[in-house]
Amino acid sequence: MAGFIAEQLGSDKALAERAGLLSKTDLMTEMVMEFTDVQGVMGMHYARIDGEAEEVAVAQNEQYMPRFAGDALPSNPISCAVALADKFDTLVGIFGIGQTPKGDKDPFALRRAAIGALRIMVEKELELDIHALVEKSRALFGDKLTNDNVGEEVFEFMLGRFRAWYQDEGIAVDVIQAVLARRPSQPVDFDRRVKAVSHFRTLEQAEALAAANKRVNNILAKNNVTSDAEVNTALLSEAAEQQLAREVAALTAELAPVYAQGDYQQALTRLASLREAVDNFFDNVMVMADDEAVKQNRLALLSQLSRLFLNTADISVLQN
């Protein structure tokens, strides 16, 4: 598992595998059996005495980081790989036998493991995907797991830990919910979205656009509009819908590379410029026109507008 993660990070797979292989050996020593709080520390010293590579030795200690809230994180990619492997092994293994935390009871410290893994990936800016890590870990267990839904349960659990973590950091609940609606599976990507939506809320256009998006979502939901609906410009007869269509098309093209780079803050800042066109559209255009083709075309336009924002988050859930 550690080797797999190291590969994802572009680091040394062999060193990570060696560090992972040795990661629990010090637990069998009399020193650690007598003084349990030196686990990992002794492993590091033993590895150095045995002539292991320094990164392998350091990983014996740093695999347990962060040990508590606010603790330091692993210092290098090999240590990060081993620490993440250990935490995902614990999460997938325990969830895989149906021993999920219930209420305040968490005998296997799964919440701490999840928060620790998220902190490492976010604060170290590691481009790793939770689904991929869970699936790899599950595969390594072979047929030992009894819970067929372990992948989705671990993912949902980690999303819940994200919410708790950001709330502790003072992030507004509705900002977190807006991002959770998109279910990002890369923690560092999740973090960028949260920061972007938090910034978006400070803009003067945010309240009006959040309300407009809520209205758009309600209209689309009631009319079963497909997400790939296309706009026929020949059917745009009102000046307000023509203006909105032009701006949506221009921003769709402009922001494609921005979204590809994960620069959600820049994207939402640019989308704030749509406020006037959106307000003008709803003030002057009847979406539910008598002509079915015109109606469907306007619904397609609203669908394109919605998708622009949903590339980052569902801002319709933002409160005033």
UniProtKB/TrEMBL annotation:
Which Gene Ontology CC terms are recorded? Answer: cytosol
Q: Does the keyword RNA-binding apply?
A: no
Top-level EC class, please? ligase
The EC number on file is 6.1.1.14
Q: What is this protein called?
A: Glycine--tRNA ligase beta subunit
Its GO biological process terms? arginyl-tRNA aminoacylation; glycyl-tRNA aminoacylation
GO terms of molecular function: arginine-tRNA ligase activity; ATP binding; glycine-tRNA ligase activity
Keyword tags? Aminoacyl-tRNA synthetase, ATP-binding, Cytoplasm, Ligase, Nucleotide-binding, Protein biosynthesis
Q: Which domain of life is it from?
A: Bacteria
Under the heading PANTHER family, the entry gives:
GLYCINE--TRNA LIGASE, CHLOROPLASTIC_MITOCHONDRIAL 2, GLYCYL-TRNA SYNTHETASE
The record's subcellular location field reads: Cytoplasm
Family to which the UniProt record says this protein belongs: Belongs to the class-II aminoacyl-tRNA synthetase family.
Q: Which reaction does it catalyse?
A: tRNA(Gly) + glycine + ATP = glycyl-tRNA(Gly) + AMP + diphosphate
